[in-house]
Structure formats: C-alpha cells, structure tokens
TrEMBL record:
<dbReference type="InterPro" id="IPR016064">
    <property type="entry name" value="NAD/diacylglycerol_kinase_sf"/>
</dbReference>
<keyword id="KW-0443">Lipid metabolism</keyword>
<keyword id="KW-0594">Phospholipid biosynthesis</keyword>
<keyword id="KW-0067">ATP-binding</keyword>
<keyword id="KW-1208">Phospholipid metabolism</keyword>
<keyword id="KW-0547">Nucleotide-binding</keyword>
<dbReference type="Pfam" id="PF00781">
    <property type="entry name" value="DAGK_cat"/>
</dbReference>
<feature type="domain" description="DAGKc">
    <location>
        <begin position="10"/>
        <end position="140"/>
    </location>
</feature>
<dbReference type="InterPro" id="IPR050187">
    <property type="entry name" value="Lipid_Phosphate_FormReg"/>
</dbReference>
<protein>
    <recommendedName>
        <fullName>DAGKc domain-containing protein</fullName>
    </recommendedName>
</protein>
<comment type="similarity">
    <text>Belongs to the diacylglycerol/lipid kinase family.</text>
</comment>
<keyword id="KW-0444">Lipid biosynthesis</keyword>
<keyword id="KW-0808">Transferase</keyword>
<dbReference type="InterPro" id="IPR017438">
    <property type="entry name" value="ATP-NAD_kinase_N"/>
</dbReference>
<dbReference type="Pfam" id="PF19279">
    <property type="entry name" value="YegS_C"/>
</dbReference>
<keyword id="KW-0418">Kinase</keyword>
<dbReference type="InterPro" id="IPR001206">
    <property type="entry name" value="Diacylglycerol_kinase_cat_dom"/>
</dbReference>
Amino acid sequence: MTNDELAPTSARSVAAVVFNPVKVREAVLRAAVEAAEREHGWAPSLWFETGAADAGAAAAREAAAQHPDVILVAGGDGTVRAVAEAMHASGIPLALLPSGTGNLLARNLRLSLTDLPRAVRGAFAGVDRPLDVGFAATRTEDGVVTRRAFLVMAGIGLDANMAANTSAELKRRIGWGAYVDPIARSILGNAQFGLRYRIDRGRSRSLRAHTIIVGNCGTLPGNILLLPDAVMDDGLLDVVAFRPTGAFGWMQIGSRLAAYSMFHRSTAGRQMLQRTPDLKQLAHVQAAEFEARFDEPQLLQLDGDTVGDVVGVALSVVHHGLTLRVPRG
Ligand SMILES: Nc1ncnc2c1ncn2[C@@H]1O[C@H](COP(=O)(O)OP(=O)(O)OP(=O)(O)O)[C@@H](O)[C@H]1O
C-alpha cells in the first residue's frame, strides 16, 4: 500500500516517519511504531526514507505535505537538521528517535539514546516544547548565497575541520574518540584565521581566532560543556571564539571547559561560574545575529556536517522556530 492510500481520511491521528535506513533497523522501528499506533488508536503511519544524496529534505517535504499530526525522525544530527530545515515552517511537531553517532541535539535535550520504544511513545503521547532554529546564510567565493538551518551548532575553523577530517567509518567504530586525532593535529598546527565580524548589526570589528562556534545548544561531542549559558529556546545564539596562544592557552581553555562541566551541575556552581570573568582565550557573547567575513575562505560545519568553504556567513536565530514533541517527564 502506498503512502497516498494511507493518507488520513478519518478523524484518527496519523504520524509520519522519516528514517535513515543506514542508521536504523527498519523492522525494529516499524514494530515500535505499530505498537504505539495500536496503543493510542492512531491510523497507520506514513513512511519516508532518506537517501544518500538527500539527507532528508525531500522526505520531510513529502511527509509535511500529508499534514500528519507529528513527524518522527529516525537518524542522526544530519538527518534531523535536513528534516527540520525542510518542515519547520509547517508547524508540525517533530519527535526525535536518536539513531546517529553523535546525536548531539538529543544529548542536549537529555533524551534517552537507547530506549526506542519510549522515544516512539513520546511521539504519540508526549509534550510539545518550542526550540529555536539557527540559520546560516553563507556566501562562497563565487558569490553564491545559501541559507541553511542548524539546531545545535555552527563551527568555523578547527571545529569544521574536525567534522570534515573525521572518517565516517572510524566514527561508527569508536564513536567520538575518532575526533581525538584531528583535534590533536589541528592544535599542533595552530592555524588561526582573520575575520571581520558584527554582533547584532553593531560596529564591525576584526579578530584572529583558531575556531569560532556559534551554538543554539551548549554541549559538544564527548559531553564537553562549551556554552554553559546556551538555552535552546531563548531567542539567542551563544558565540565563542577560541583564541589560544600556544600550548599554555590551550591548557587554560581545557581547564575552563573542565570547570564548566564540573560546576554547571549545581546552582551554587552555576552562580560561581557567572561571577567568573571570561577567559581572553575563550571570548564569549550572546547575540541574535552574528555576521563574519573571512580573510581567507573558511570551512563551515552545521550540526556536524561540513558545508564547505565560505568567505562570509550571517548566523541568526528564529525564536521558537520549531516545535519538538518529547516524552513526558
Ligand atoms: N538511503 C540512504 N543510503 C545511504 N546513505 C544515506 C541514506 N540516507 C541517508 N544517508 C546518509 O546518511 C547521512 C546522515 O547520517 P545521520 O545524520 O543520520 O547520522 P550520523 O552522521 O551518524 O549522525 P550524527 O551527526 O548524529 O553523528 C547523510 O550524509 C546521508 O548521505
């Protein structure tokens, strides 16, 4: 039976499932979804596969065109990013079934990464919460401007090189440990780049940095808390520029990130962190918009996927641009 034949004809609710067949065990996923349909009296769900050349945009558009009550996304951050970009304006809630390697969005939302039945039940009977959607308008050397969404982070410099140089096979086998080698090489190379930037359309300033990360969420791979002030639905992006000078600078950044992870868990710890002055090597600012022009083309990554070299980027946020459906509690 095709999805058209299954399209909702009655008052029964219906879900759409967009899934990455490379990342999920389809039979297990279908069994969990069918169990939830029976439990909640929903119509049979509509199914859409992502493809090697299209990480989810086409599937998400087809899914949204059927006006389902919720769209479940089974895949990693790349799949979620592509799906959210294509369907966020529809207003249909999105439920995550984390199935990637990093699952950074799910980690930042503190969702279970292993309990598929719970994640599926959450899609059928969870609660809706708003999420800000980041947008990156990039300009390439030949003048082409492209606008893409991101939900977790945009990274320029070391961060984007890490995303580009980490082999998918290694990531699959050893997870985030695969990032150690590219990080080490980038630190030893200590390549900095020059840029001119503006915050919230203010004065243009220049800066040299090793890497710049602009986050909607604060936690990096390996559970490293990079942006302790980042809140996913506050209408703001958190911008941090890594500007270490030599090995000592990297050590200071390392100790500061360790302190974030250690103290952020308690209220007293968070208050102490708020009183601690920013580290010069780790300059941080919150903004609704961050624009940058680079002296040389720089690699950009969005939610872990490399976009390519860009000469400029404007990063902004749509406050409550997406509705997420998450499990209760
Ligand atoms: N049908 C398919 N066949 C082959 N490859 C696919 C197919 N559908 C999607 N892909 C590939 O899967 C990639 C997206 O993977 P996804 O983001 O789901 O997982 P991940 O990379 O492990 O996630 P994370 O960023 O969380 O580590 C896309 O680059 C896309 O090319």
